[in-house]
Amino acid sequence: MKFNSKYLPIIIGATFALGTVVGSLMNAPTDDQFLAKNYSKTKLNKLIDFINNEYVDSINTDSIVNLTVDNILSKLDPHSVYIPPSEQAEVAESMKGDFVGIGINFYMYKDSVAIIKPIENGPSAKAGLKSGDRILYAGKTKLYGRKLPSDSLFSKLKGLQGSEIELTVFRKSEQKKLKFKVKRDVIPIKSVDASLLIGNNIGYIKINRFAETTFNEFKTGLTRLKQKGIQSLVIDLRDNGGGYMEEAIAIADEFLKDKQLIVFTKSKNGSIDKTFATKAGSFETGKVYVLINENSASASEILAGAIQDNDRGTIVGRRSFGKGLVQREMDFNDGSAVRLTVARYYTPTGRSIQKPYKKGNEDYFKESESRIATGELYAKDSIKVADSLKFKTPKGKIVYGGGGIVPDVFVPMEAEHGNENVGYLLQTGIVGHFVFEELDKNRNAFAGDNFNTFLAKMKSSDVYFKKFKNYILMTGLDLKLDKTKALVNRHITAEFARQLFGELYYYDVILKDDAMIKTILNPKK
Fold first, then answer.
1. Is the pLDDT of residue 447 over 70?
2. Using an 8 Å Cβ cutoff, are 306 and 263 in contact?
3. Which residues have a catalytic role annotated?
4. Residue 150 banded pLDDT, cuts 50, 70, 90
5. What's the pLDDT at 17?
6. SS3 per residue for 122-166
7. What is the pTM for the complete model shown?
8. Superfamily name with CATH number, domain 98-188
9. Which CATH number fits domain 192-325+345-410: 3.40.50.300, 3.30.450.20, 3.40.605.10, 3.90.226.10?
10. Rounded CA gap, 325 and 219, in Å?
11. Which single residue of 52, 87, 329, 428 has CA 20 to 30 Å from 453?
């Protein structure tokens, strides 16, 4: 399959748009009061009945209803959406924070299901499956040579907790077929990717979304870092599109003193609901830094706004996405759902950070492209702020509303101006696939190496950088990587570290030369 590099920002934007569908969610209602009244017949009902009974050809009226709902919601705002059953199950699972399965990371490599890495201590790892194994059969169901979509594959591998499935795999390193009996179990879907030390007494926690389990995951990581004596904490919200606002609020409470305002919402009828910090905060005095970028949205902006407006910490990075709308979910019997915007949220100083959406959804989600054109991703002076939306924090710091959180300390995008597509490329899964395929060719290349030996080996040669250049050319992407060689090499090395040693080693590599982290560790005098 060939790609045109000019479409990379669109691919990333589309992925991010799906992420922000989750938005900032409130508890679901128990009935349909937000979408329908108990009228005897609506114009829409009559039309559907008329088509169903009288139209000359047979037609699936359910598809008409779905299309109608989509069209209605598209006229409201970008975050009021209809989610069909096939997507709703996946979104709900992601936000729940776990599922029942066999515990592997995989992708379709050529015509087979290739295991990138079994999840540590998961069912597959315990059963003896290894990285590089190809799953040929799940029970009696053939999985290879069929180009099955991911949702079909998941359905074959999932099941009831404690149920057993026999997997037939091909192990390339041994050139033979093997059979394993795997007992399915609950597999966590982590929303906190890492919690580790990055400097003297400085902790780091990376949050990828705000799911049901996020606060508990965060609190576990924070507790562990406090035991190691941290005095400062970096919360990384880059590329975090949001999720449950209650989870973001609970995390903000860890840093704010009793009765400090975290966020407030305002509904259609003007009613205001304020949420304050409690006495439960466990890190109310240490230094706090929050990392954001143009893809940090919704619940991420609630947390960043609460820290900034209360003068509690320093926001580092680039202007956030700008989503200040709150959704409420209504589920339907067919497994679909509607998420309807029911309120706006405001940061403690009274800011709405919602960016304009009057020009339509496509323009709204592609707004980040205009930030490239204006140079905003490279210079703080290019950020457009309106004086009419100026607010003051309790200590007199000026903050702005009207379109995202503007950071206190600006850090430009690492890719050079004009090479943005390299940055977008590194956000896709292509680096992970490249590394898997390289390891798959020779899994003994790093056999016996410890982490330091591995790093020395990667630094001593450009072989994988050259191979990666050829790899992306073969996919049809015509990108010039030489000017961003150091950045690309860092991502390649980090991905090798992840697949060879584990997730924390990925962050050990990727953060060492990260521009935002370096700004915190080595502030300008």
1. yes
2. yes
3. 298, 309, 323
4. low
5. 44
6. CHHHHHCCCCCCEEEEECCEECCCCCCCHHHHHHHHCCCCCCEEE
7. 0.88
8. PDZ domain (2.30.42.10)
9. 3.90.226.10
10. 26
11. 428
